[in-house]
């Protein structure tokens, strides 16, 4: 099924950490869109998985996303290298991914999830890197291996499917 569904999705929030975000190109915009995804997931009952790369060095998740849930702490750039992450995303749910950095932790995680034959949807306007070119090349690489590339608005409206959805007003307000 090409369209995303809230009932079969898991939001994967990768490494939005306090010491990393100031270095991310357009970091405020990336964080804003990740926050929109997280709030829509909360409103629509979409489970979320949060990761933190070496929090002792990069700090905890930024406050705007800390309520997504308990973080899976990792040292491996690829979140799939952490058994707790694999447990959190086990099953066949489609994985909607946002995070930093696109060309390191996001990219490696997405490529491994694709190797595991998972449906992976990367939210282009909710991932970032320090250098724009690294982000663009990472998006192209992930797409060439089978990741679907979407925007925040695409996810929200596909999760809703209709203006008659009971959560239409609060979710649509997220993008105004």
From TrEMBL:
Pfam families: Isochorismatase. Gene3D superfamilies: Isochorismatase-like (3.40.50.850). InterPro entries: Isochorismatase-like_dom, Isochorismatase-like_sf, Isochorismatase_domain. Residues 10-153 form the Isochorismatase-like domain. SUPFAM superfamilies: Isochorismatase-like hydrolases. This is Nicotinamidase-related amidase.
